Amino acid sequence: MNTTDFDEVVEQYHRALGEHLKGNPEPNKMMHSQQEDVTLASLHGPPVRGWEQVAATMEHDASLRREGEIVEIETVAKYVTPELAYIVEIERAQAKIGARQDITPYAVRATIIFRLEDGVWKVVHRHADPITTVQAPESVLQK
After folding, report:
1. Residue 114: helix, strand or coil by DSSP?
2. What total of structural domains would you count in the chain?
C-alpha cells in the first residue's frame, strides 16, 4: 500500500464524515472496523470500545447534527505502514447542532488510526476533541 492509495482512503473517510454531519452515520460506520478492539472517543461522551458501542455512539453523535458540512481539513501528520496508518487533523466544520436552528461553525482536533483488514483500510480508533488552540495549564483541572 503506497501513500497515494492511502490518500484515497482518507478522502473517502472525509466524504463519510461529511455525511455524518448531515445526520447520516452509515458511510462513516462502513469505514470502521467491526472488531471488538475498535474504539471511539467522541465529543459527546467517554471513550467506548467494541463494535456495538462504537456504532451506537456514532448513531447518537450523528443524530445531534443536521445540514452540516466540512469546511476545511488541516492535516497535521500522516504516517502509513503496510498494516497500520494514522492521521492527525484539525477538522473545521459547520452544522446545526442539537436543538439549535442556526448553522454553527466549530473545529476539532482528531486522531484517526486505520488498520488493514482483509485488504481494506478500516478505522480502528478515532479520538476527537475541541482543543484546537493553546490552553491554560489550569484548563485540565476538574471543577
Report:
1. strand
2. 1
The predicted-structure confidence for 83-122, as pLDDT tens digits, reads as follows 999 999 999 999 999 999 999 999 999 999 999 999 999 9
Domain that holds residue 45: 3-132
Q: Is 26 helix (H, G, I), strand (E, B) or coil?
A: helix
**Dist. CA 109–CA 112, nearest whole Å:** 10
pTM higher than 0.85: yes
Angle of helix 3-20 relative to helix 51-63, nearest 10 degrees, comes to 50
CATH code of 44's domain: 3.10.450.50
Is 140 inside a domain boundary? no
Rounded to whole angstroms, how far apart are CA atoms 76 and 98? 29
Instruction: Flag whether 12 is in a domain.
Output: yes
Side by side, the strands of the sheet bearing 84-97 are 48-49, 39-41, 120-129, 104-117, 84-97, 65-80
